[in-house]
Each structure stands twice: as structure tokens, then as C-alpha cells.
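Reopening closed ticket. The problem is back. First fold of the pair:
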Amino acid sequence: MAGRESHRNDPARIADLALAAAVRAQADAVYIEPMPLTEESYVITLERGREVLITVPIEAQIGAAVIARLAFLADLDLAAAHSTTGVLPVKTGDREAEVVVTLRPGAALRADLMVMRPRDHVVTKLAALTAGDKVGQYRVVEFLGEGGMGTVYKVEHAALGRTYALKVLRETLFGRDPTAAERFLREARTAARVHHPNIVDVFDFGYLPDGRPYFVMELLDGESLAARVARGPLPPAEVVTIMRQLAQALAAAHDRGVIHADVTSSNVLVLGDTELLVKLVDFGLAELAGEGLHEENPEFVLGTPAYISPEQLRGLAATERSDQYGLGAVMFEMLAGQPPYVDDDLRSLCMKHLQAPIPEVESPHGPLPPKLADTITTCLQKTPQQRFPNMRALLAALEEIERVTDRRGWRRWLSS
């Protein structure tokens, strides 16, 4: 009994067992994270597709030690302020796989493990999807559009008859970066676990026969925030309403250690006219697009340079405060009709993010209250340390502005 109990409390043994069990059970992912609503326990969850294979509760101290063991094996820095990733080769019996280990600091330490079996790396000739093609349980209905990261199709579930949006990693990214497929799907899985009313729901994941990953998400009937702003700057009260919802979504994600890294008006969908509901999309996927800033071809950074933080331009990993910078640029754009920095030359635009003074936002709807202007300026500071300490602090500032708006009417709060 004593020996069995010691194994149960041995972090190294638990880490090894979790890796082996994931490969033997042909799991797609393993999550080691705090149990909801308690700080005293962690839980290890094995998933295949959207099915939970098993959950194992362990003490919080042991859970953190298990993550530390995985960090040691994958040569990852536990003290890093941002997510870090490494790869472990795992062999158990006659089965073997590579396990991608991602550490997410967040409010509490978390580890996501993604199992990459040999079949995931089989690559055949790349081909565009067309109407009628079958992708897993889904039938392609029509092409919807293409962005910097992926191609989106409207699909119908074969059994349920419900329509969804299916996004496939772009052929150009897949062909140029051998790790793009793993990161694309890993981040999609992570985003799917951040359930929030203002984040698009992700339902399913998989691979095309050519090796490209895809994920299936809710099909939303709305317009991008970029399209809405293109018709003219928005009233300040509407801007604050939209920003509060976006900050709530990002705060929930940051609590789980997930960074969006590409907050832009094109990545926000607006639903409804009277009761505005916004949805943040492409969650956690845009670090791939951001890497395109180091390439000669500007095709890979469309939609990103106008909002990217100075630290990302310097080659540093995105953090929670990088998302603040993106929000500040979006807020500026909603009020002024364009982002804070505009330039036809990509290099000049990047230099403005790094060196140019923060411009004063001007709205055609009249002078802005100091607190709103100060919030934008704080978000757009060049160094992360000068921004809000976290997303919840920014959210608190927005909620205070909204309360004053409701109480006085926005033109009366210019001195508040």
C-alpha cells in the first residue's frame, strides 16, 4: 500500500503515466489545469476529438509539480511570462508519437499536451475544397472567404443538417512552415476551451488528407467590426459597449493563459443592431500571421501591422499586455475612423508603432471625455509595463466609463 501511495504522489511518475496513457489511448490532447471553482485540486483530462476519455483529480501541489516535470523534459522555462512550447518523443509498447507540450502561465500554471501521431504528418497534393466535398462529418456548401491565416467555408453536418463555418490553414502557410499545422490546431483546441459569450465557439477539429488542419466553428450572421467602422466612426457610447465585451472575452482567455496576439477590427464580428453582441474570432491563431512581419512578402501580415504591438515587432512573444495594445488600436479606430498609425509602406508603419508619439484621438461626434482618452493612451504605450497591469484592470476602467455614461449622458461626463 505504501508503495502504491508513493506512486500516486510522485509527480515524475504521474507525468510519465499521463504521456504513456495519451499515446496508448490514441488521445488527441491532454490538459493539466486547476479544477474549476477550487484552488486546492488540479485535474488531468484526456480527450479524443471532443470526447473526454478520462479525468483524474490530483492535489494542486502535485499538479504543479507534474507540470514542472513536463517542463523539464521539454526544456521549457516555467518562469516565462508567456506561453512556451516544446516537443517530446514518447514510445510505449509498439506505439510512438510526438507530444507537443505547451505551458500557459495565466492566473495559475497550466499545461496543454497535443499528441501528434504519424498519420498527422502524411502530406499529399494540396487541393482547394469545392462544394460537395466531404470533410469528416461535414459537406462543403460554399466558399466564404480567405484571410491571412486560413480559408473559410460554409459546411453542413451530414447527420444533424446544421450549418457551420470550417476554417482550413492556408496552403501558402502550410507549405512554408512545417510547424504551422501543429500550432494552428493546438491553438484552436485551446481557444475551444475558453467558453465565453463573446468568443466564437469551436466545435470540432481534424486534418484534411493532405495534412492541413481544420477546425469547425459556429456560423455567425453578422459583419466585421472593420466593415462597420468603414461606414464611419462610431459614437463613443457604442465604442465603450463594444470594448467592454472584447475586454471581458480577453480577460476570460487570459485567466486560462491564452493570448490572442492579433486583436484587430477584422477579427471582431458584430451581431445585432439595438442590442450589440460582439464575438472575437481567430482566437490565439494570429501569432502565425504576426511572424510574417519578418518575411519579405507582406501578404502574410495583411490586417496585422496596423494593430501589432511594439514588443511583437521586436520579435518578442505576445503577452496579455500585447492584447491591450491591439484593443487600444481598435478603440482608436472606432472613434477616429482609422487606426492610430497609417502608412502605405510596411516598414514605415512598423517604425511608427516603435517610435512615433501616440496621436490624439479625435471623434466627429465631438470632444471625448478625459477618462476615455486616457484609457486609449494607456493601452497604446510603447512599453508593456506602462499599460494596464492586466486585462481586468482595463475592463474596470471601461466599466466605470460606461457607468458614468449611463448616469449622465456622454456629453455631460467630459470633466469626469
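Second fold of the pair, where the issue appears:
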Amino acid sequence: MNIIKVCDFVTLNQAVTPDEGEIIYNKIISYIGEGNIVILDFSDIQLMTTAFLNTAIGNLYKDYSSEQLNGLLKLENLQIGDSARVKKVVDNAKKFYANTVTFNKNVDDAIYGKG
């Protein structure tokens, strides 16, 4: 079992940028790619954004199913508001990676008025 303490990889205990999320994502991938369980520890994190979470956690759904991630990735010490934010990111990632073609078409339609 591997523990990734998020505050060790972000600035001023704030998990906000996609670049910081990518560092966490790459660490997670390196461990779960070997079949190891990962604990993502959010203790001491004072601020967290969806931009960070989309990269760190949402991108995992590109290569792994919910069932796989439920068995390999555990989140600990999330603040109450952050738990809801993680759930939203996970739900959106599942929808996006389930059907990226339709999702991208809908985004293009909304932005460019195509249809």
C-alpha cells in the first residue's frame, strides 16, 4: 500500500493547478499500474479546486473503470466541501470517458451553434 500525501506535492497546502494535479496523477498511475493500492491523503490541504481534481483524479477514468479504481484508490482526510467536489469531478469524468464523441459534439454544438 502506497500513501501519497498531497500537501507534499503542492504549494502552500493548496491543491489548485492542473500542473500540481498532473504530478499526483502520475504518482497514482505509477503505483496502480503495478496493482498497488494507493491512499491519497488530503490532510493539511487548505484549498482545492476542480482544475486540480480533474487532472489528478478525473483523468484516471480514461484508463481505469470505476470498479478498478474503487479497489485501488482510497481518499482520506478530505474536508466536507472537498468530498462533494471530488464526487462531481468523478461523476463528470465517468460521463465524459463513457462517450467522448457525443460529449465533444455536445460541447461544440453549445459553443459554435452547430447541430
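Update: turned out to be a display glitch only; the data is intact. Residues 5 and 41 are 5 Å apart (CA to CA). The chain has a mean pLDDT of 91. Please close again.
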